[in-house]
Every structure is written in C-alpha cells, then in structure tokens.
Amino acid sequence: MTSARLHRSPLPAARAWFDERGGFAAVADAFFSPRGRGAEELEEARELLAYWERRARRLPRWALMRRREAREMAGRWRERVRAAEERRYGRGLLGAASMYALERRAPTTLAHRGRRAARVVVYAAAGVAVTFTVLFLAAAVAIAEAVFSVL
Question: Is 90 left (phi over 0), alpha (psi -120 to 50) or beta?
Fold first, then answer.
C-alpha cells in the first residue's frame, strides 16, 4: 500500500459536487431566494401565528374559553415557527444574525420575549407610580394634620 493512496485529496470530489450544482451563482441564488418547501412552511406558520395572536388580542374579555384557545394555538404555532426558523437559518446567535441579515426580522421567540418583557416593565412602572402616589398622599395628609394641629 502506497502513501499516495492513503492521503487522497477530497478536493476533486468536492469540486465535482460543487460544479454539478451550478457553482457560486447557484449557491448564492439558493441562499438568498426563499424558495422551497421550508420557506413555504415557514411563511404559512408565520401567517397562522399572526392570525391566532390577533384573535387572542381582539376577542372580548368575557370570552374566556375562546381567548384561552387562541393563546394555546398561538403558543403551538409559535413553537412551529421557531422550529421552521431553526431549520432554515440555524440555531443560536448565528441563526438569528443570518435571519436578520436576510429578512430584516428578529426570530419569533426573541420578538415574543421582548413583548413580554416590555409588558412586565410597563406593569412594574405602573406599580411604582401607584406606590409613590400613595406615599405622596400619605405624606401630604401627615403634613396637613401636623399643620392643623399646631393652629
């Protein structure tokens, strides 16, 4: 057995594979054009997620069962969108960066968590504002009682 046979270069096979698929132009076209089953599946999942989120927001407060159903379905479709985005763009920071570079949009899970975080911040700010208002009124009442007790 010769050493040349042990150290065969994979370059000719890789080059042939690359040339069969059309070279750089075909790879770039496939990368930048959202075609194929994965792109259609992702687009459909995004549309259905938007429908269920919109339905959950627009239903009246008294329609508890329908709102619960809409929230559950939005959660299911959010998970499907997340999985489809992961298949198409990859996981982690690199996947999020490639999605943002190609589509100018953040991953669905990041957008959802951002909305939830913003809601928590608004509720916390409202709680702090109510607390300070109550404290201010209590201090004003204490000062008023002290002033009127001296007079």
Answer: left
Q: What digits encode the pLDDT tens for the residues 140-150?
A: 999 999 998 88
pTM over 0.70: no
Amino acid at 78: R
Q: At residue 42, what are phi and psi to the nearest 5 degrees? A: -65, -45
Rounded Cα gap, residues 94 and 18, in angstroms: 24
Structure tokens belonging to residue 1 = 């057995």
Residue 47 three-state SS: helix
How far CA 33 is from CA of 9, 29, 40, in Å, comes to 33, 6, 12
Q: Is a pLDDT exceeding 90 seen at residue 109?
A: no
| Inter-residue contact 45 to 80 (CB < 8 Å) | yes
